[in-house]
Amino acid sequence: MRKENNISRLAMKAMGLFGGVQMMSIICSIVRTKLVAIWIGPVGVGLFGLFNNALDMLNIGTNLGIRGSSVRDISQAMASDDRSLIARIVVVVRRWSLWLGLGGALFTLILSPLLSQVTFGTQDHMWGFVALSVAVLLMAITGGEQAVLQGSQRLKRLARASVSGTLLGLLISIPLFYWLRERSVVPSIIAYASCNALMIWLLRNKEYPPAQVSRRETVTMGRDFVRLGIYMTIGNFVTILASYVFNAWLNQEAGTAAVGHYQAGYTLINKYTGLILTALGMEYYPRLAQVASDSDKMRNSVSQEVSIAMLVLAPVVALFVLLREPIVWLLYSADFSVIHAMVSWGMVGTIMRALSWSMAFVILARGDGRTYVITESISAVVGLGLNILFYRWWGITGLGLAFMAWYVVYTIIIAVVYFGRYRLSLSRASVARWLWALAITAGVVVAVEAGCMWAAGAATAVSLAVSGLQLVKLWRG
Q1: What is the pLDDT of residues 191-245, one digit of tens each?
Q2: How far, in Å, CA of 33 to CA of 40, rounded?
């Protein structure tokens, strides 16, 4: 029991640290999005969504998953306490990141006319994609340094680099928005990538002096995490590609403004509440990788992660749904009121997402690349199909219902792998907390949609009280 409490404390400390980082990122994103919505409008938000979606696709498609897969190798090397091995792996990760970044930039340059044609139906934005090749290179280098810091448990330094890079990027982008308007979208994206690369380079891990590693050794030592990274790349690329296809389809089906509304709603559902999972994952993934060969320790870690995620998410999601109207107005503008129902129904899916997220990390921790590709590919196809189908039936609101249905299906897929393939289980306490969080969230959404704000407020208050007491209990042990 004492060890489980230690796990809970580690997870909550990481959540506090990176929760602060994510909150700062969100504040910067709020300012950026608000200025774009005011000075450029829904078209500007849509352009940001389309270019960023394309950039994510290019980044994932060309960096071979080094950012995620190498964390596993670095973490396991840290567990062995072999400084020479750690130093060599760090060199290998940095070299692979540079090589892949250069390759990705060249690939983007070559495909820029095609990317513009597919995304916008014209080649007028070709030079925008040419410029994005710089961001592809910088993001690859940044990802390598982030992996080194995360794998070596230098989380505070990683947090400082993230915050300072985001703040600097925002400061540079504000005058661009004002003076260039629609033309500021691509320069702003490059500014953010440049600032993040600069800060991560200044704060990189310098504790391990550069080791002498030949190019042949670089290829040999990097083979394992590159192999897993390729599987991760395929899985992530399919997911991003599905999102890219849907954005392009929606842009041609309903216009750029509709893409802007979708991106705004999706950001509220997936990214703003997802900051909790992102914060938890910074400590969770390296810890899980270190115990990948011990089923009992993995079960304990996953169960504790599910419990903490549910206790934190339940009141956050309930508050988000209860205050959806002022939140949408604050973050965007009155033009985005059409996404209220989309946000509400999508929030139910975040509870399913947290459960599946906690179990899915086991796939990566065990290096099971083929399973990762299969689960992510099925998920991407299902998500794309549900988005198109539900949008045709219910418009923007249907996209929130599609998100909820998508994560119900994804949770079932991951559960088959977790319980069936790996023969793992979850503690009764973690399952009970998941069911409680799901009931609270669904109850608040139904109450808000029915106009019973007093009932939604009461349920939210209960969730705040229960979660607060349970989290204190876990912390104290």
Answers
A1: 999 999 999 999 988 787 777 888 888 888 888 788 888 888 888 778 878 988 9
A2: 10
Q: What is the pLDDT of residues 137-183, one digit of tens each?
A: 999 999 999 999 988 878 889 989 999 999 999 999 999 888 888 88
- What's residue 3's pLDDT? 52
Give the H/E segment covering residue 261. Answer: helix 256-266
Q: How far apart are the first and last CA of the chain?
A: 8
Predicted pLDDT of residue 145: 93
Looking at the predicted structure, is the pLDDT value of residue 2 above 60?
no
Sign of the torsion angle spanned by Cα atoms 76, 81, 84, 86:
positive
Q: Which amino acid is at 211?
A: A
Rounded CA-CA distance 230/309 in Å is 29
Of the candidates 152, 145, 164, 54, the residue with the CA atom closest to the CA atom of residue 98: 145
Question: Whole-prediction pTM value?
Answer: 0.78
CA distances from 430 to 176, 383, 413 (A): 47, 27, 19
Instruction: For 107-135, give one letter per residue: b (16+ CB within 10 A) or e.
Output: ebeebbeebbeebbeeeebbebbbbbbbb
Ramachandran angles phi, psi of 338, nearest 5°: -70, -15
Angle at 368 between CA 363 and CA 371, to 5 degrees: 80
Rounded to whole angstroms, the Cα distance separating 96 from 128 reads: 27
CB 182 within 8 A of CB 43: yes
CA 252, 253, 257, 263 dihedral sign is negative
